[in-house]
Amino acid sequence: MAATEEVKLLGFWVSPFVLRVEWALKIKGVKYEYIEEDIFNKSTLLMELNPVLKKVPVLVHDGKVIAESFVILEYVDETWKQNPLLPQDPYQRALARFWAKFAEEKVLEGAWNALCSQGEEKQKALQQTIEAMEKIEEELGKKQHFFGGESIGYLDIILGWISHYIPVWEEAGSMQIIDPIKFPATTAWINRFLKHPLIKDTLPPREKMLVYFHQRSKELGSTSHGWIRV
Amino acid sequence: MAVVKLLGAWTSPYVYRVIWALKLKGIPYEYIEEDLSNKSPLLLQYNPIHKKIPVLVHDGKPICESTIILQYIDEIWPQNSLLPTDPYDRAVARFWIKFADDKSPSISKLYRTGGEEQEKAVKECLEMLETIEEHGLIGGKKFFGGDKINMVDMAFSSVAHWLEVIQEVAGVKVFEAQKFPRLNTWIQNFKQVPIIKENLPDRDKMLALLKHRRKMLLASK
To answer: What is the pTM of this model?
Structure first.
């Protein structure tokens, strides 16, 4: 790898999608420049780099632009070969990608909708999220340390937001998603994940997050909006 | 000799993505048609989480979700590769594949809904087509894959063949050749590729089935 290699990451301080990319870069030991975006007041830089979706994260590697956290993660894994994130075996890779997609659609979207909805909509979203977490719990029950085995891998990075965001969303949304008694394997994984040296120093501050998500849930929950896609 | 089975439904654009990939790579497989109104124990066993098709079963191991299946196929059988080799080109391809996956459901929503919901689906479809026209097909390439089709072309299966039929069923006009010249050229070229041309669901049969489905769906609302 060239010593003058340039890696930039456009992000938003509280975005779980951006955080994933930061974790992946740190695990690979890749130095990067972080550029904070105000997603409520998007810069011309962001609009130029990601004209299709106008979202963060956006990775810029030696002038090459990559968007979408799932896509960025696979790019990072293929470009920097040390500390592989995805398993080597094609079937195991397929399983990792399957669970990543499942968790994104059912847990992340579910929890977000539960946070930003009221009444029946909220209950429905909450129910879906808990049912999805039960499937994740089952998978974690089969693992020793992390989804990736002894060390953190692709699926841990994709699902890692759960460890830090779910407790905040539970408080902001006055709801419970992960009851430690009903989710022992998940709870143990969360604690292990949060203690990891590369993870614990990258987490956005909890109190700031609580204020932010209280605000967002109020704004979005004030109107009936149907299912929000993430 | 490894056994490959594909559980599918004859009208699903997601199933066809997998059929095209297997045929392009010359992989023999057993096709099992599923009745989605009466799901078989086999389907429920192989895809307990989503209970959906397609499911690829290779050596007894099930793989679900068409895009994940395509990547698996490409990794196990590298001949006639479906993705570029360069990591950046692969990232661009994956971006468009994800875009196709995220936005394609609005095409089937066109015939599954009416009134305001259908209007919303029309708007979503138009946005998707405009994005592909403006950003996806630049550079004058014949296909997303260059001179040959690749996984991105296959990912846009719904746009290539299903959209036109669904528009007729739904009584809406979303795609017009003059409005989307690049997309139109791509569709014409794509459907001329032998593997694609020889493996598409019968248009008239599909039209009849989807018309019937639309009637049932709207009546139940």
So the answer is: 0.96
